Structure formats: structure tokens, C-alpha cells
């Protein structure tokens, strides 16, 4: 197993066809999916409105810091597959190898997850709708969106972004009208909506409820760093990532925090067996409780489109991550090849894995599905921690070598090295919350505690495997970190071994 061989012959270069306009709209809402549109339903029942909002504020703040760190890294060293490429460069090849495969596996199974969630949402209209009627159509749609390359993928994502912004904005407006008692169809007493309802359900199940919701917030923000991959196919990658760092706070406030606050004002959820069944969005449930069935149906339809968008983004992320890994000699050479402007073999693998969504048909489908998802459970936190550690080590390496920061950094992260350290602490807390919440889960049918460890186990298996087979170093000394941008380009093009 040669972990240090470059991809060899063949075209391994992706075309830079995504425009700044496309990138901006993708930065606003490209990775918003089932995490915020569906998982917040059970989170509200388990943790309460205040726990839900606080956890999203804390994790959102840390995610913004991480995007700033990634922006600084990508402005100085623009490379394809940037975040795990930076792990190779600033931490160690072994850790970069583990992070790359961690990311690929995570998004491979997110494609499966989003397909199943779309099926569950469709069953809002027809509870007995067979999976084999729906899933093949969704997979065909994903193939079609990704068949025309990055440019048309970006155009599709722009259309999906508008849909997501519209449904979340419309929900906030309707929720405000409900709170103001301006919806005649909603006959609930004044104390069952608004701030009174929010206060009554502010904190549920104590610290365990908060930890559970904190874990959900980490899952909901997953994919924000996907912009680092998208930038590799953007016309001006060194400019768009710093721009994304300025857009992300607007996205977090407008499309996460405000809707989540309003959900707690208009939706009452009890913790029972139905909470774990999935398939209903808190936005749709709130319209049902307000006796607005037409809006509930419209919202459900747009939410299916939004989740399809996240599935499409996951196809893009997993295929590009796999191609970038393989082009650096960290995966099979076959997946490094580009045909007709596409990472064709990487896409083939993604769509083959997507067929696992049919496990919902089997008798034990839910059990198998939960264990598969557990493989990706800790991926987001590991990815974000690695980005922040790379940022910290970049700054320390500059100081160690006595170089002026302005000679290396083309754009500096506003939170700086201190911000990245704060984010690392928050993400480590998120990883701990995942395990503690699983052990003490208040859910009626909690998953096996081992499931919460699977994502962590996978990361360290890949890391240890590289350390043993690739004879890797534990940590690159600061004075040996290469700070030359051209070296990053050579590595990115497969001209140097990892």
C-alpha cells in the first residue's frame, strides 16, 4: 500500500468555472439541509427552545471562526481539497489522510441520509408511499444535476438557495403573524404561543437535554466548510473565501438563529415515540398546529427541494474530496481521473453508495441505517478542529521562522489565533456532548452508545493505519512547515509526494 505515490498519469485538474455570483449564493445557503429543517423538531422536544437557540449560537460562532481560519489559509495557499490538504501541510500527512477519508465517508453517508429524509418528507402526504417509487427518482435527479459539471451544479445550487431562503424567510414572517394573533385560523389561546410558550419550554431534561441539542447543532452546521472545496473550481479562489467569511455570519443569523427562535415561539412538541420517527419538519408541524394546511403542504414541498439541494451538495463534496485525495496519492488512482471535466469514477462510487438508501425497505432498515449514520457522527467536529489547528500552527510557524505575517498572509482572520483556540474548545465540547448525550439519552428508544463512538473510531483507524503502513510522523515540527505558496500548488497538482 503506497501512501506516498502521486496519482500518476491522467487528467486530475478540475476546471475553474464557478463564478463569484454563484459562489456568494452558495455561501448563503448551500449546506442547509435536514439538520436545521428536520432535526430541530426532535431537538425542541428533548432540549427545549432556549437550549436549542443557545447551542446554535455557540456552535454558529465557532463555525464562523472556522470559516475565517479557512479563508486565511485558502487566501495564502489556494489548493484543491483545501481543509485536509492543510492538515497534511500543517499537522502531519497521517492526520491529513485520516481527515480526508473522514470527510469522504461522512458525505457519502449524508447522501444516503438525505435521500431517506426526502422519502420520509414525501410520506407526509402518503404515509404508505413505497421507497422504490420515490428514491430512484431522487437519485436520477442527483445524477442529472451533477452530469453537467461544476458550473451547472452551481447554477442548480443557486436556484435551490433561493428556495431555501424563501421558505425560511416566509416561515419567520408567518410565525410573527401567529405570535401577533393575526392568523384567524389559529384558535390557540394567547398563552400557548409567543414568548409564554418559549419560556415554558425553554429548558427540558436539564444538562442532558442541552448536550443532546448541542450535538444536533453541530450536525446542522455541517457542510459550511464545503465552500473550501467549491473555491477550488471558482474563477478567483483567493478572493471568494475571504468574501464567504463575511457572508457566513449573515447566513447564521438569518437562516439559522431567527427561524430557530421563532420555532420555539409557535411550536409545541412532546417527547414521545413519534419524535424519533422523523419525516416532519418543525416548519410544517408549526403550520399544522396553526391550522394552515395549505402553507404546511407548500413548506413541505419546498423543504424536499432544500434537502435535495443538500444531497446534491454532498454528492459534489464527497466526489471532489475523493478525487483530491486520490490525486495526492492518498486513495486509489482510479478516483483521481477526470473525464469530460468530471471526477467520473468518484461520482460513480458516490451514486453506488447512494443505493444504500433502499435499506429503508428492509425489515431492520432503521437499525442498519442508524449504525451507518453513526460512522459519520463525529466528522464535522473533527473537520472543524483540524482547520482551526492548521490555522494556529500556520501562525506559530510564521513566528517560529521570524517571518513578517504580511509576507505570507494575503488576508487575515479577524478572530485571529485566539479565536481558533476558542473554536477548538467548543468543538471538543461538542464531541464530548455526543458521547454523554448518547449514554444518558432521554429519548424513548435511544441508539446504542457504541454508535456515538463509531465516527471517532474510524478517524483514528485511518490515522493509525497511515502511521503504521506509511511510517508517518506524529506532528510536523513548526520550523519544518513549508510556507511557500508554490509548494502548495505543486503538491496540489500531484507533482510531489505527500
How would you describe what is shown here?
By secondary structure, the chain is mainly alpha-helical. It is built from 20 helices and no strands. The chain starts with 19 loop residues before the first helix and ends in a 6-residue tail after the last helix. Residues 1-13 and 487-498 have low confidence and may be disordered. It is found in: Membrane. Residues 24-469 form the Amino acid permease/ SLC12A domain. Keywords: Amino-acid transport, Membrane, Transmembrane, Transmembrane helix, Transport. GO terms for molecular function: amino acid transmembrane transporter activity.
Integer-rounded radius of gyration: 22 Å
Number of domains: 1
Q: So what's the overall shape?
A: globular
Beta-strand share of residues: under 5%
Structural class label: mainly alpha
CATH uppermost class: Mainly Alpha
How many distinct helices? 20
Output the helix-strand order. HHHHHHHHHHHHHHHHHHHH
Rounded mean pLDDT is: 81
Keywords: Amino-acid transport, Membrane, Transmembrane, Transmembrane helix, Transport
Main location: membrane
Membrane topology: Multi-pass membrane protein
Subcellular location: Membrane
